[in-house]
Structures are given as structure tokens and as C-alpha cells.
Design a protein that fits this description.
This protein has 367 residues and is α/β, with parallel strands linked by helices. It folds into two domains: 1-90 and 239-329, Isopropylmalate Dehydrogenase, CATH 3.40.718.10; 100-233, Isopropylmalate Dehydrogenase, CATH 3.40.718.10. Helices cover 36% and strands 14% of the residues. It is built from ten helices and ten strands. It has an eight-stranded mixed beta sheet, sandwiched between helices. Strands 4-5 form a two-stranded antiparallel sheet. β9 and β10 (249-253) form a beta hairpin. The longest helix is centred in the middle third of the chain and has 17 residues, at 139-155.
Length: 367
């Protein structure tokens, strides 16, 4: 666990409270890495990376990057992702039942390459007053993210992948990315493939987002579109995200914001972090606990009585967490034969622990 900056520590506290109430069999190895709180160093970064290499899975908050240049172009957040080769960022933008927005029933996925592109940290002053920033696009990484997008679409039963680019202007860089996507698309004849220029894509997302299914794009475009799409369903506080390498999985908020203005005020929306934590449990094959928590969060949203300020309400973070925990309780049932627990979707008695039990749920003498 890496709480990060801003409201990150408060959101992680919310996760720990809900995990405790749901008896989730997960132990966190907690580390603190922050450039703005002077808690960042190569030694701390190495400790975090060693922990992640051991566990293979992490839950992280936003590690805020100061704008001031202090001799190092690559932020600790960027260096962390590069050292773990977290090349694929996935943000599932889905409408929450019970919260009305301009576009309802949205369900689209944004896949972003996040180890090169404009975020390569290669900048220099060629002559006084002239800064050159290098955007790096490689065939290998473009093919890798394209294949990831099509594999994701295949695994999740999605029907279309849209490659987003600016190849009309950046003919070589984005042109290479686009060609790689087109080449990979030929290997997946059952998945529809189309392309769209980034500026038009932003307009189309606002006007008619239903035309999209899976979108794949280079680094900077993905960063912008993640935030735009999050705004369509309620903002950064409700959209979970995750990043993958060949070995590691990191779960985080889909739109990375520190929400510095909310620090210490108990008003941050924990929805995105709780849903990310639920996705982490699903990745760990803890289906029962994952569904228990995600269902609890969605029930609170759908009920409409407990809303944080970003969703137009006046409830506190603590109010939201308490309401989620209260919504876990109806599932508990009677422990004799585990009542309704045994019939919950995704619950496997031989594998998953029941809240209140130690270890897997074992059958009783009754059939």
C-alpha cells in the first residue's frame, strides 16, 4: 500500500476500515513516498519497488509531482512505473446506477501506454530561450499496447477497439503508433477496429460517448482522455483504474488527482479507491470479498441518501464508509450452513472466507 499525497492517506484509511468490516484476508505492507512532503529518496523508492516485486500487487494513491524543476525531470511516480514496466494503464469508465449525469449507462474502457510518449522526461534547452521536449514512440511498445488492448477486448467480450492518434500532424511518431495498431488489428478479425484523431475523439466523447467501447492511445492523450471520460460519469472520485506489466498489477484511481483542497476535511469521495481495492481483490481471486465491497459501494450510490460533496451531497467520507459497511451486513446471514452466503455470485466455500469465519467456509453436516 502506497497512500501517496493529498487525500490519499484518508482514502486508504477508508479502504482499511471496509476491509476490516468485510474480514478481507489481505495484509498491507505500507510505504510512504512523497515528493511534496520530503519523503522521497532513491532508498525509499527501492524499498517500495522491492515490496512490490515480492507481492506482485499494490494499491496506491496519487504521488503528486511538483511543477518546480529541481534537477531531475522524471518524477518518482514516473520512475516507479518505469522500473516496474507498468506499460498499460486501464480505466473502466462506467455509469453508477442511481447517479444521473448528462450521459447515463456509459460503459467504455481507456487503455493508455504509459512508459514512453511525451512523458519520456527527455527535455533540454538547445539554445537560450528554446526548450526541446522529445516524444518517444517505438514499434515494440506500440505493438505491445495494441496487443494488450485487443487481448483485453477479447477477454472481456468487447466488440470494438478505437486507436486514438494525431498522425495527421505527427506523421512519423503517431504514424508509427497507428500503423502498429493497424497491423495488430489484422490478427483479431472478430474485433472491429477504427481510428480517430485525438481532438475529434474528445468532442465525440462529450457529444456521443456511446459509440466507443475500448480506446487505445499513447501516453499524453490517455492522460487527458482519462480525466475527460471520468467527468462524464461523476468525476475523479468515482472512477477506478489499474496499471499492468507482465508481472505486476497496481490498482489506483482512474483520474489521478491529489484533491489537496480536501485534505483533512473529511469530504473526499472514497468510491474510486474502494472500487479499485475491489478490483485488486478480484485480481487476487478473492471474488466473494471483491463482490461484497463493490456491491456495497454501488448500493450506497444507488440509494442516493449518502452523497459526498463532489456528487452534490453533504455527507462526509466517514458517513460514506459507514454506509458501505452497513451495506455489507445483510450478506452475513446465518453461519449455520452460511445461509445466503453460499448462494452469492462468485462465492466459493472451499476458497473464500466468510465474514466472521477464519479460513475457508467448510460444509456443515447438513446438505
Amino acid at each position: 500500500m502506497l497512500p501517496g499525497d493529498g487525500v490519499g492517506p484518508e482514502l486508504m484509511h477508508a479502504v482499511k476500515e471496509v476491509f476490516k468490516a468485510a474480514s478481507v484476508p489481505v495484509v498491507f505492507d505500507e510505504h510512504h513516498l512523497s515528493e511534496v512532503q520530503n519523503m522521497a529518496s532513491e532508498a525509499k523508492l527501492d524499498q517500495v519497488i522491492d515490496s512490490m516485486k515480492e507481492s506482485k500487487v499494490a494499491l496506491i494513491g496519487k504521488i503528486h509531482t511538483p511543477m518546480e524543476y529541481k534537477g531531475e525531470l522524471a518524477s518518482y511516480d514516473m520512475r516507479l512505473r518505469r522500473k516496474l514496466d507498468l506499460f498499460a494503464n486501464v480505466v473502466h469508465v462506467k455509469s453508477l446506477s442511481g447517479y444521473q449525469t448528462r450521459h447515463n449507462n456509459l460503459d467504455l474502457v481507456i487503455i493508455r501506454e504509459q512508459t514512453e510518449g511525451e512523458y519520456s522526461a527527455l527535455e533540454h534547452e538547445s539554445v537560450k530561450g528554446v526548450i526541446e521536449c522529445l516524444k518517444i514512440i517505438t514499434r515494440a511498445k506500440s505493438q505491445r499496447i495494441a496487443k494488450f488492448a485487443f487481448d483485453y477486448a477479447t477477454k472481456k467480450g468487447r466488440s470494438k477497439v478505437t486507436a486514438v492518434h494525431k498522425a495527421n500532424i505527427m506523421k512519423l511518431g503517431d504514424g508509427l503508433f497507428l500503423r502498429c495498431c493497424e497491423e495488430v488489428a489484422e490478427l483479431y478479425p472478430k474485433i472491429k477496429f477504427d481510428t480517430m484523431i485525438i481532438d475529434n475523439c474528445c468532442m465525440q466523447l462529450v457529444q456521443n460517448p456511446y459509440q466507443f467501447d475500448v480506446l487505445v492511445m499513447p501516453n499524453l492523450y490517455g492522460n487527458i482522455v482519462d480525466n475527460l471520460a471520468a467527468g462524464l460519469v461523476g468525476g475523479a472520485g468515482v472512477v477506478p483504474g489499474e496499471s499492468y506489466s507482465a508481472e505486476y498489477a497496481v490498482f489506483e484511481m482512474g483520474a489521478r488527482h491529489p484533491f489537496a483542497q480536501a485534505v483533512g476535511r473529511n469530504i473526499a469521495n472514497p468510491t474510486a479507491m474502494l472500487l479499485s481495492a475491489s478490483n485488486m481483490l478480484r485480481h487476487l481471486n478473492l471474488e466473494f470479498h471483491a463482490n461484497l465491497i463493490s456491491d456495497g459501494v454501488k448500493k450506497v450510490i444507488k440509494g442516493g441518501k449518502v452523497r459526498t460533496r463532489d456528487l452534490g451531497g453533504y455527507s462526509t467520507t466517514s458517513d460514506f464508509v459507514k454506509s458501505v459497511i452497513d451495506n455489507l451486513h445483510p450478506h452475513y446471514g446465518a453461519h449455520s450452513g452460511h445461509g445466503r452466503l453460499r448462494h452469492l455470485h462468485g462465492f466459493h466455500p472451499s476458497r473464500d472466507s466468510c465474514p466472521g469465519c477464519v479460513g475457508p467456509c467448510l460444509p456443515t453436516s447438513r446438505p
